[in-house]
Amino acid sequence: MAVAVAGLVPSASASASGESGNPWLARRVMNMAHAGGESEAPADTLYAFKRAVGLGADMVELDVQSTSDDRLVVMHNPSVDQTTNGTGLVRDMTFRQVHALDAAYNFVPGRSAVPGLPPSSYPLRGIRTHQQAPPSGYRASDFAIPSLNKVLATFRHVPVNIEIKGTSDTDTASFLHNAELLATTLNRLHRSDIIVTSFNDAAITRFHELAPGIGLAPGQQALLNYFSSGTRPIEGTVALQIPVNYNGMPVATKEFIAKAHADGYAVHVWFSGTAPENQDAYNTLINACADGIMAAWPQVLENLLDQRGITRPGRPGTDPCQN
């Protein structure tokens, strides 16, 4: 979610002591595989998530859309056109239709989904449709668009960050609908290792009304208010999830992260084109005391964390930010 602010450190008026006992402040430094690591594997697929967790990722980040028969599926875009061999809006298709598609069809290693290249550019194309065998240890269905229920059942003991999507940024009704479906799903599970977020603040509010026990990361307007005036975000907020930069201006600074920590919030940082993503950038965020890094390159981040011996959830090490 974009943060359009003039000042990069939140106002000092955010003076409350913060969320007491926020467990996400202790869960650091996390390798949060963004969409499973979309530069290394087809985004939001079971293959990507299994691969990232196998490498050592501490948390998986994913997005949800809903189908015409109200099944939540793990998918970033409202349309299947860019990533699959199909066309159309997810919302206009049944789960069966969506699940049959090849989610690796346009995946190019190092570039995520890039349609229109020569067929040889797509090494994983056709696994879902049984035109080539899957890699050892995987199934053809791992290259499909999965249901959220399937992902949550597969990763019962892996923390999950879920972003509520909609059919377009301006279609608030679709965000609210997906928030309601998600609340119903998560209320059945009674998990304490899930964070829910959305670009759309109304979706976050609606979700919290229906599932008040699940931790939140606030939406765009709430983040903007926190930066500009120190207004605390919605009750239930456990993490602030921010870009590295906004319009070339640094956002994920050591000063901002320290202020957020003082207010009781963990800080998770994403790239998504806001800044070059590489080992140097990961190093900078670790040194700035980010609690989690949403990595499109989870293997690169994992190697760096291992090389530096950085403290991880359940894995002792060195914390460069320990007081």
TrEMBL record:
SUPFAM superfamilies documented for this protein: PLC-like phosphodiesterases (SSF51695)
Any Pfam family: GDPD
Biological processes annotated in GO: lipid metabolic process
Signal peptide positions on this chain: none
GO MF annotation list: phosphoric diester hydrolase activity
The GP-PDE domain, residue ranges: 29-305
PANTHER family: GLYCEROPHOSPHODIESTER PHOSPHODIESTERASE, GLYCEROPHOSPHORYL DIESTER PHOSPHODIESTERASE
Protein name: Glycerophosphoryl diester phosphodiesterase
Source organism of the structure: Actinoallomurus iriomotensis
